[in-house]
Design brief:
The complex is a heterodimer of chains A (about 450) and B (about 290). Chain A is of the alpha/beta class and about 450 residues long. Chain A has 18 helices and 14 strands. Chain B contains 13 helices and 2 strands; from the N terminus they run H-H-E-E-H-H-H-H-H-H-H-H-H-H-H. Chain B has a two-stranded antiparallel ribbon with strand order 1-2. Chain B is globular, with a radius of gyration of 23 Å. Classes of the chains: A alpha/beta (about 450), B mainly alpha (about 290).
Amino acid sequence: MFNKKRAMLLLSVCLVLVVSGCGANSNEGTGGTNGEPAENGDKVTINFMHLWPEGVSAGQNKIVNQIITEYQDEHPNVAIKQEVLDNEQYKNKLKVLSASNKLPDVGVTWAAGFLQPYVEGQLFTPVDDLLSGELKDKFVAGTTEAYAIDGKTYALPLEFNIAPIYYNKSIFEKYKLEIPQTYEQLKAVVKTLSDNGVAPIALGNKDRWTGSLWYMYLADRMAGQPALSSAISGAGSFKEEGLLKAAAEVQSLVDSQAFVKGFNGLSNEEAKSEFLNGKAAMYMMGTWELPNFTTNEDIPQDFRDSVGFFKFPTVEGGKGDINSWVGGPGVGLFVGENSKVKAESKAFVEYFVTKWGEQSVTGAGVIPATKVDASNMDLPQLYIDLFNEMNQASSITLFADVQMQANAAETHLNMIQALFGKATTPEKFSEEHDTAIASGK
Amino acid sequence: MDKVLSNKKIIALYVLPSLLLILAIVYIPIVLTAYYGLNEWNGIGAMTFVGLDNYMALFKDATFWNSAWHSLLLALFSGLSLMLYLVVAMVLAARIKGAQLFRKIYLIPMLLSSVAIAQLWLKIYHPTNGVLNTLLESIGIANPPAWLAESSIVLFALFIPILWQYAGFYILIYYAALKNIPASLEEAAKIDGANALQIAWKIKLPLAMEVVKVTIVLAVVGSLKYFDLIFVMTDGGPSGSSEVMASYMYHEAFRAYDFGYGSAIGFFLLVICLAVTWVIRKLTATKDTIQYS
């Protein structure tokens, strides 16, 4: 009897211990993210949250670690603590942390619409002082502007991307196809391929922004870049004739079997594998995919050698220019407004951005947002060609879903999926866009 | 033992840890969710109190009712599938050859994580290389559908893995309930000349009824708030044709940055689940419980 009683007490004590154990753990986890003030002398810890896990972005992950190690060696009083998450999880965690005001000292953010609520909530600190300091004129024109709100810049961009159409040279050779210069030629290429049972274009429209790229290019080529930009910003309207025609053209592309079967149910990753396996002939994607077509050893050499790219062709009678691109800066680094080690964090960001520019070209094969002299580096031809295209670009329109405010972006993406799935009409598509953008959230 | 349990302090000591835990991670968040639902809030900046605006908007939101309809359909199918599981459990409990093996086979999906199941079924449903379409093509069906990309079938294509995922769980529960029925009752019925169907209908079902009631509530409420496979496999698409209440809540809160509205959906979902549970309890209430010992 007594033993039983003791045993039960012991068990409940265990439970209490477990519970309090959980509590202690979570305290440790969250308390640290706000940055410890400079205690015991000058030792400073900077918490850095980013989205390049080793498994998914091996190249970037290596560079990050390299830069951090170097920085810590040069600044022995600074310790940098990393927290690495996957893209979607990262976005969610950032939201949750900001709701409880526990953002890391340094973190990764996207431009424009994504940035807006964080700036309004006064969670990011302006980094204009860095821009006028050592980093002055180091960025490619048009990159830092995407992170500016009301005249202040809130993050420093790392990457810069444009979206070309990659194509499989061996498939094109097999069916004696030429790179299309006009949209009519592109349609002819699509027809030949689909008549021969080859999927013309890999598209994973479950992710929706992938289809948005196609719409944006058609809109750009038909209505012209100014019309597209002003419609997205709310100054113009999606009911503009060229934009309506672009939406209708998307549906006629779908009708002509231009995209892989079941594209609305495929993720971008699944669609990409269709292209990587040589099952689809074309694939439109940002230059962040470049490593897979140039240096990534996991992909067969044969395939990498057979990948080329072309610019989205011009549309006859359209107002667009072939050198106009859809793209924009990828992610950038912010410094938390409530960080207790703001000065040190800013210094780290400055250092990181500079080093990133140099190392990401050779290490990860992505295009940095800072100006880099690539002339004496040994780089793959595909990379150099795209790099040069970018410098000749007449305009670069930022991805629509990044430009828009969160709610409007969500409408845009849903309507894109509906448009491709023929669940809506071009008129309805335009109307929903105008309403969502006008609502201003 | 009895002495320990009659001591009020000891009872409190035992109950308190889990009570505090449940309060902290279940009940307090529920109250907070209801409160957030009364605000216009993007999850980051300041909240503005808007009263019942979010809830009013919810009633007029066609997308929400559409997703509610999808959830309801799932609940209906889960409820109906319980009958099938009960039959399977009865067969397995009847000491047929290989029952042990089958029980394990049915249980395996339950041991897999939802994401693994989703990946598995994504491969099965893949429009060109998928197991299902390859099979259909090999038996001469030209151009089989792209299961997850067509608005008219995507929902039902999703129901199959969802139901399959939980089949083992319910079969196991039913199996245990049926095994609990004393063999003497069945023998007595047999002697009286009852056939297998009569035994199942008149003896086994009534005796397992309490368990069946619980599983109905579990299945229906579980379906109403279902999220995982749909989120991973279609993300509610294409264009909302597989959106359910929980995924709509997620999209509003985390994608459209409308935490106030997302919270309102979440709270309303809770109300619906409570109401449905209450209705099911009322409908299945019986006055006398059957005793069999």
